[in-house]
Amino acid sequence: MKTKIILIVITVLINLHDVLPQSVYCRPFDLSYAIQGGKQLVETDSTILNAIAAFSPTWIENVLLNVDPLPYDTFLIQLKQITPNLGFALGKPAYVLPNDSATMITLATKYAAYTKCIRIDHFQNLVQYSTESAMLNFLTALHNLGFQHIESNPWKKAPSGNPWIYVESAQIAIDTVTWKAKTARIDSILLNSPNLTILANYENAPGQLKLTSLGAAGSIAAMSVAADSQNVSTVPYRFFPPWSKNYDAYALGTLTWIGQKLDSVDACLTTGLNEMTNDESGITIYPNPSSGEFQVAVGSGSGSEYKIEIYNVYGEKMYSTFINNHSSIINLDIPNGIYFLELKTKDGIAIKKLIIQK
After folding, report:
1. Helix crossing, 45-53 with 73-80: angle to 10°?
2. pTM as predicted
3. Using an 8 Å Cβ cutoff, are 43 and 255 in contact?
4. What pLDDT sits at residue 3?
5. Bridge partners, residue 340, by sequence
6. Among candidate residues 15, 103, 8, 14, the one with its CA nearest the CA of residue 56
């Protein structure tokens, strides 16, 4: 069966043991669609879907917060066609475990029909006022529901000092004075839980409203600081820009810039291997688009043996091969969707995003 492959180049560095979360968090985006009482965005669903599809984020965060997904079923199904990684959130300041476990698990069960990604809001309150055993039972229950990506917002370490099981990411707020991520906060989190992915954004209303007050050009300048700083930061984090009622990126006309920024920033930069830039890796794929048969060519400076693997957005390996020269012909027969072609060499790892369209 012939397939068509459109390549959007994203050369990134990842930890060999973190393929799944790194690919999911590669191009994160915060879409606050329905929160508490209902839909928040004034734009029509079709407008939202078309705008998001234009830059295909790999993780769409905060789509729902403490709302039943069923009334938004049609929209959510269509959004999943852009990416299956939809981050739904639950949690309120007054929740305490195990008292409110049943309430939270009931909503989480509904979420599980749509996504494998969930965010626990007011995480620090749960930790502070709940027993650690109740927290562990709750996280285990979420894991057993099939959630592969559990995010804490904001993070708080366990009383025992042990990393929280099944928690893969933590959200922190960007400083709205310097417009940079709070690296001291990130450092303290990673000191306790070094495998967490840190997501930095303007999560609360005051931060987003201040961003809005800067206007289109000013907010782009502010977001550029956080987005560009992640590549030179001494501690790794992922910047993800917002679209909400408090920062309406569509109305301000900044979505195009956001899409371009997500393309240009090495959002998956972590420590552990040497960074391979696009020029250093010298990787080309031709033809592109293709009918399913294409050539992968690697620059002569990358070594003599290469491993190529292709993963879907869930981190499942779809294809693997070794090549011992600088080019190879590959034929794919995999379903439509977003994939990641990973090239491993002696110098590190480079990843290129693939979109399969039959």
Report:
1. 10
2. 0.71
3. no
4. 41
5. 311, 353
6. 8
β-strands 86-90, 59-65 pairing: parallel
pLDDT digits (tens, 9 = 90+) for 16-68: 333 344 567 777 899 999 998 899 999 999 999 999 988 878 889 999 999 99
Provide the token pair at 300.
């002569």
- Strands (E) in the chain, as ranges, are 4-8, 28-31, 34-35, 38-39, 59-65, 86-90, 117-121, 149-153, 167-173, 197-201, 238-239, 242-243, 284-286, 293-297, 306-312, 317-323, 327-331, 337-345, 348-357
Residue 196 is given by DSSP the state P
Which pair of tokens denotes residue 130?
A: 């709940």
Print burial letters for 266-283: b (CB count within 10 Å at least 16), e (below 16).
Answer: bbbbbeeeebbeeebbbb
Beta strands of 182-292 (E only): which ranges? 197-201, 238-239, 242-243, 284-286
Residue among 281, 351, 283, 315 at smallest CA distance from 148 = 315
Q: Residue 292's CB: how many other CB atoms inside 10 A?
A: 17
Q: Are strands 348-357 and 4-8 parallel, antiparallel or unpaired?
A: antiparallel
Q: Which residues lie across from 29 on neighbouring strands?
A: 60
Structure tokens at 90: 């639950």
What pairs with residue 119 in β-bridges? 89, 151
* Beta strand 327-331 pairing with 317-323: unpaired
